Amino acid sequence: MPAFRYRGKPLVYFAGYKKHIGFYPGAEGIRTFETDFKERKYKFSKGAVQFPIHENLPLDLIIKIILFRAQEI
Questions:
Q1: How far is Cα 45 from Cα 54, in angstroms, rounded to an integer?
Q2: Are 34 and 25 in contact (CB under 8 A)?
Q3: In whole numbers, what is the pLDDT of the chain averaged over residues?
Q4: Total-model pTM
Q5: Which residue from 14, 33, 44, 63 has the fewest beta carbons nearer than 10 Å?
């Protein structure tokens, strides 16, 4: 699974599927942005969120998550 690294550590992972793009910011990333996922009606689990393949990626939210993860590292 492809990943972006920051300071030698995994920042986020991602993967393409038939109906969604899986985005994996880790458990704390999911907990922190759970309200955003619920408001936007995205499916999510303990470590991943699913962005529907037929919709534009929520770049504003992805940027927030990446900045949050970078601060964690």
A1: 20
A2: no
A3: 96
A4: 0.89
A5: 63
